[in-house]
Amino acid sequence: MRSYCWACVLASVLAFGIVCAQNGKPAKEIDSAELAKLLEQPGKVYFLDVREPSEIASLGSVKGYVNIPLSQLEGRLKEVPKDKLIVTL
What we know:
Helices cover about 35% and strands about 20% of the residues. With about 90 residues, the chain is of the alpha/beta class.
């Protein structure tokens, strides 16, 4: 079983817990229990951290998230898979 900084995960969920499905469904907030379940499903979910480098430097990161800053997201959309559930931070 993987080890996670659950305080970081919980803080992330409370602050930014939005799940974005690219199938036209609206985004929804998730709680720490839902996120924990998603973390146990490697390959089914793409974890996207849209914070800027300065935010990550001051707040830290969450293991497994790919960082594409929001300011760069439009130009880097091809890097985001279209066949997975997207969990953003």
